Amino acid sequence: MTRFFVDPNGVDINKNTIRLSPEDSNHIRSLRLRPDEHFIVCDGNGNDFVCRLGKKEDDSIAEIVERRISHGEPSVASTIFIAFQKGERLDYAIQKSVELGACAIVLYESKRCIAVPSNIAKKIQRLQRIALETAMLCGRGIVPSVSCCGDFKDMVQAAVSSSELTLLCYEDEDNVHLKEVLQQHFPPLCKNEAQKLKTVSVITGPEGGFEPDEVSLAKLSNAQVVSLGQRILRSETAPVVAVSAIMYQTDNL
Question: Is the entire prediction scored with pTM above 0.70?
């Protein structure tokens, strides 16, 4: 079914109605939905509402038919810290990270970044739109946020302080593999929900990789440096691989 996201304030449970934005109303008209056809409206807080069109004279109102919890959200909240990248690589990394279940994407500037946008606010706005459209298509219960936190030092502090486990994916790490760390922190036979981690941060680098002093700073800040394998991955591929591994190990894939 077609999915829309709305402001939770527009949901009136008492009246079983949801007020749609002008943009969503126009979208519904373009789809030529019949009055008896159902579509899903999500409040962005993990609640799905199966709806049908309201009165014909007011297509901005959707009538709630059924309320249910969204099944598109994983049990672990992963925030992906991605260095600015050139061209459409960032678009791809964000789209696939959202599809796989990332709860937030944070962009930052690293020393080896090839391209940093001159108008970051405009860039963020466009990438947030990509996250929204992707969340609608893949059945998410939230719209993952896209933001920017400045330089590498600020980024590491934000990553470590916002999660129980912070992973930095580094091509020159030879001893510790991502798989080993995930098996340690997310043991497959663990039945005690209280012992399972709920938040993870993943840091991936730019096209040119990390500077050694950046990796050292991350280690001093209690980030776990890990390898993604024997092959060097492109900057837009690394976050996708890391999120996929986390979702697989936590039974969310």
Answer: yes
